[in-house]
Amino acid sequence: MVLLGALAVPFSATAAPELTMLSEHPVDGIAAGNLSGLAWCGDALWAVSDREDNVLYRLDASDTVWQAEAERFELPPVPNTGLSWGVRMRSAFTGMLRGGEMDFEGLSCDSLGNRYLVSEAYAAVLRVNPAGTAEWLNLPGAVVRQARASGMLLKFNAMFEGVAVDSGADRLWLAAEHSRRGLLVTHRTQNSWRCTGGCVLLVGGGRDSTPPEMGDDTQPRRFSGLTFHNGKLFTLEPVTHRVCRRNVENGHREACWSYADTAMAESRRYDTPFGNAEALWVDEDGAWVGLDNNELTRADGEKRPVVWRFAAPKGGWGAKQ
C-alpha cells in the first residue's frame, strides 16, 4: 500500500499537456439527469445516473445531441458490506429525498458485455449481464474493512466513486472519492473475489488548487472516475481538471493530461465551486468525459448532461512526460 499526502500547490504548478476536444454531446432522455458513469460495451457507449436505481442507458450517438435509450433491470436486495450504521442510514435517507438510493457512481464493462456499477451509498458492486439480469458481486469484506482502516469510506458522500474491470473480469479496481481518496483492487477466482496481498493499492490526502476561473480555492483531492485501458488505470481528477495514468500494481501516477481549457471556457461554466466531470472512458483513440450537471444550468443555457470527446495525446496514452 502506498501512502500519499502533500500540501496544496498553486494551480499553475499542476500544469499538464492539454487534451484537444473533438466534439461535445448533450444527452437527451436521462430522465433524472446526473450522468455519473460511462463505459463502452459491445457497439455502443453506455451511461448510468446516480439518481436512478434500476436503469442503464445505451447512448445513440448518431447525431450531435445524443439520445439515451433506457434498459431497465430488477435490483436485487443490497448486501451488508460493513459500512457503519450512521453512513448507511444517512445514505438511505438522502436517497429517498432526492432519488437514487443506490447512488450509482461508476460504470465499467468486460469483454462479455457485463456491466459493473458501483454503489457509493452501500460500497457494493452490481453486475448486469447483457440479458439485463443483475446480481451483487460477492466482494470480500476486507475491501471495506481495509479501506476504513486506511482512512477511507469514513464520511458520508465520500465513498466509492469509480469502478474498473479488465477485459476478462479477473481484476476489479475501485476508487474512493476523497477525504481520504484511494485505489483498491480485488482478484477473481472462479465465482469468488479475494484480496491478494491486501486490497488497498494507494491512499492519500491533501488538497489541490482549483483553476483561477473557479476562485483560486483549494479542495480535497478527488477521484471522480476510473477506467482500465491497455494495462493501465486512468483516473478522473475534477479539482485540477485532469485525466491521469496510473500503475495498476501500486496506483502511482505516471502522467496526466488536462481538460481545463475545455471545462473553463466561459460558455461551459456552471455556478458551482466544484468540478463536475464524473464519468471517464479511455480507448486507443481518445477519451470520453461525462458531466454530472447536478440539475444546474450551464452559462450557455444547457441543462442536459454533456459528454466530451477528446483526442488521445500526441504519442498515445502510454507517452512519457
From TrEMBL:
Entry superkingdom: Bacteria
Keywords, comma-separated and alphabetical: Signal
Signal peptide: 1-15
Domain Phytase-like intervals: 32-180
Full protein name: Esterase-like activity of phytase family protein
Phylogenetic placement of the source organism: Bacteria, Pseudomonadati, Pseudomonadota, Gammaproteobacteria, Pseudomonadales
